[in-house]
Amino acid sequence: xxxxxxPIVYSCLVFAILSPFSxxxxxxxxxxxxxxxxxxxxxxxxxxxxxxxxxGPAASLIRLHFHDCFVRGCDASVLLNASPTNPSPENNPVFxxxxxxxxxxxxxxxxxxxxxxxxxxxxxxxxxxxxxxLLVPGGSxxxxxAGRRDGNVSSFLEAVANLPAPTLxxxxxxxxxxxxxxxLKELITLSGAHSIGQAHCxxxxxxxxxxxxxxIDPTFAQMLQGKCPQNATVNGVVTQDFVTSDSLDVQxxxxxxxxxVLLFSDWALRTDPIAxxxxxxxxxxxxxxxxxxxxxIKAMQKLxxxxxxxxxxxxxxxxxxxxxx
Length: 325
Ligand code: HEM
Ligand SMILES: *[C@@H]1O[C@H](CO)[C@@H](O)[C@H](O)[C@H]1NC(C)=O
Ligand SMILES: *[C@@H]1O[C@H](CO)[C@@H](O)[C@H](O)[C@H]1NC(C)=O
Ligand SMILES: *[C@@H]1O[C@H](CO)[C@@H](O)[C@H](O)[C@H]1NC(C)=O
What we know:
By secondary structure, the chain is mostly helical. It contains 13 helices and two strands, in the order ααααααααβαβαααα.
């Protein structure tokens, strides 16, 4: 390479490093400002209306967005229903996903004003942000870069291969998140989403009979045994955070330190001293919101850019549950 090119190469490098979003991301804030200016507010009001005054279930939107992005990128693959040509999509009953009705309500509202313009993947990213806003104390609307396109592939096997199971230990969780470019710190940050929503007994039942008192607080374990009896015929549902159930706050981190978290994977975060340092510091951030909250927003924005389809790739689905014919 000639010496004359080096300054250009270096300035490109500097630009790449300083640029807020990674080079492969073509998403932009306000992507629909000319093609569908009220897209984001329409999603927000449709979600609020569909929740009908009960914000707790909004938690499901944050989880749907996470599952979407970790499997084949944020392409709305998690929203595709089983069909004769694809009998086993990403959204398998083992994951206990909910909230698809909320996404459908938002899509219907957006299609009514701008048909064929706004992707289901973007609607889900906006909806996850709106769920954050509804559940975080005081509310907070972060920017959601948009321009995602919808994919047409959805596979249960890919979901199993890419999503973390609640039985994983910390090493395995780190590997799963590192495969998507997330650090141990970001794993801990994002896990704060377990401060809201629910889990089915099937997701943690194996920890209860018998329970290990070094991993679960005995009073907490007995309470969970009451909610998830052995050999029960129904798969019960339990609140993830018993202290501040519908509040997206840092209580989750205190719950970890108190052995009062449902999933083995939640408890496993405290098995590494470096992780514990982060957990302790987040657990103190309940007044100022200067540690966990900005980290969580940044991590959600990063999550939302994973392997996205843009430009003319993919399609804009007309309903989120099926690819366009
Ligand atoms: C660290 C690895 C993770 C594992 C092993 C995991 C696993 C699970 C499991 C098993 C449930 C309960 C599902 C049920 O039985 O109903 C759950 C719920 C949930 N997860 Fe995670 N998760 C992880 C990370 C995340 C991340 C990164 C987010 C989002 C940023 C997230 C958001 C949620 C939310 C909001 C719920 C409640 C959903 C609802 O109420 O419907 N999780 N997770
Ligand atoms: C985590 O699980 C894997 C697979 O079972 C095992 O090889 C590894 O030793 C475990 N790590 C820790 C820290 O327990
Ligand atoms: C649950 O089922 C197992 C075997 O299926 C049995 O050994 C156990 O006694 C049962 N426990 C209760 C509480 O019914
Ligand atoms: C899926 O989309 C790709 C391009 O986005 C296209 O080439 C392919 O034919 C589509 N497959 C189906 C089954 O729609």
